[in-house]
OSBL9 protein (Herpetotheres cachinnans), 162 residues
Amino acid sequence: GCVTCLDYDEHYILTFPNGYGRQLRGYKYTHICNCRSILTVPWIELGGECSINCSKTGYNASIVFHTKPFYGGKKHRITAEIFSPNDKKPFCSIEGEWNGVMYAKYTTGENAVFIDTKKMPTIKKKVRKLEDQDDFESRCLWKDVTYNLKIRDIDAATAAKH
């Protein structure tokens, strides 16, 4: 992906993590019939390595989205390292939850909250109207799939996807 920060005239190239639909399986024993039923709790999980690079400044970051281990562990964990131009050692390490609070640890010894995503305001996307989009722009291309998912018609959404 490409992100341009107009206020700073900076252009970033970034890669994305993998997305997984997960389901936690457990067993519940019932005393009456001595049988098991599977309990499921679905969630979306991100996993894998990503990078962010700014060609103008030379700063870059290496990010790891950690998947939850089968036993124990936490969901939504992230670690990252931020590098100055031409440096092999990071000047800042980050850890926390990508959908919660992330903490920064600097080489100066300073520790601080890097970001709290739960306190961030939601910013509405600015998207051109469908009729103003080209045929292969994302929202135009996927409009039938999106519409059918909203009305819960999975068969029509699948057909539109094909």
About this structure: The beta strands are 2-5, 10-14, 18-29, 36-54, 60-66, 77-83, 92-97, 101-106, 111-116.
